[in-house]
Specification:
- This protein has about 110 residues and is mostly helical.
- The protein is built from three helices and no strands.
- Helix 1 packs antiparallel against helix 2, helix 1 runs parallel beside helix 3 and helix 2 packs antiparallel against helix 3.
Length: about 110
């Protein structure tokens, strides 16, 4: 068989599915980090996954009906996993709601001491 130089072209749906795969890998990293108690790493991975899903949401109006059906079916379990791991993470909260305390040493000039 002789090579004809034909190169398969990537379709648009391939790009959508590759992005969805990257989102899924980010969710997997978040699941692993949360399981090990690495909540900061889990939150960063979830943020990355959310960014990828946002890109897919922005692409949604431009997708054909068949693309939407495929991406929607493939994306639903990924979103469910993302939501499940997000619920396992502790909520970020402020350390203190009190007024700051005055520290007289803070006003002293170190050169004068």
């Amino acid at each position: 068989m002789v090579a004809t130089g034909w190169v398969p072209r990537l379709t648009r749906v391939d790009g959508h599915l590759k992005l969805l795969a990257e989102v899924s890998l980010a969710v997997e990293r978040a699941e692993e980090a949360a399981g090990e108690g690495g909540f900061t790493g889990a939150r960063e991975a979830l943020d990355e996954a959310e960014t990828g899903l946002q890109v897919l949401r922005e692409r949604w109006p431009e997708m054909a009906a068949a693309e939407r059906a495929l991406v929607g079916r493939a994306g639903a379990p990924v979103k469910q996993r993302l939501d499940a791991v997000a619920l396992r993470l502790p909520r970020a909260s402020a350390l203190s709601a009190a007024a700051p305390e005055h520290d007289p040493e803070q006003e002293e000039d170190p050169a004068a001491a």
